[in-house]
């Protein structure tokens, strides 16, 4: 079964060449949580139509409407592992 997690990034980063905030880049919505970006899961939906409807609704709400292009989603196979290896923590400033 395919499902669609829907995310929104509230940006606070200073990743631009001049220290400005980067919202979207060539590959899609930019996100750097270590530089202050805030990622929110809005929900997991069964169809693209439900994703699109939720984005329309959310764009009317405070915060979300300030960054209307900063939603992203991707199709995921239910019960399939996506992260199969461990991870390391990188502390701020390292």
UniProtKB/TrEMBL annotation:
Source organism superkingdom: Bacteria
What the entry lists under Pfam families is as follows: DUF7336 (PF24024)
Query: Which residue ranges does the record assign to the DUF7336 domain?
Result: 35-87
**Record's InterPro entries?**
DUF7336
**Protein name as catalogued:** DUF7336 domain-containing protein
- Native source species: Streptomyces ureilyticus
């Amino acid at each position: 079964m395919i499902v669609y997690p829907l995310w929104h990034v509230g940006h606070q980063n200073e990743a631009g060449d001049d220290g400005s905030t980067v919202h979207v880049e060539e590959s899609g919505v930019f996100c750097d949580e270590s530089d202050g970006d805030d990622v929110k899961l809005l929900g997991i939906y069964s169809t693209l139509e439900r994703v699109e409807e939720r984005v329309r609704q959310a764009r009317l709400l405070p915060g979300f409407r300030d960054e209307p292009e900063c939603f992203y989603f991707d199709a995921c196979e239910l019960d399939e592992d996506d992260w199969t290896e461990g991870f390391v923590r990188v502390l701020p400033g390292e």
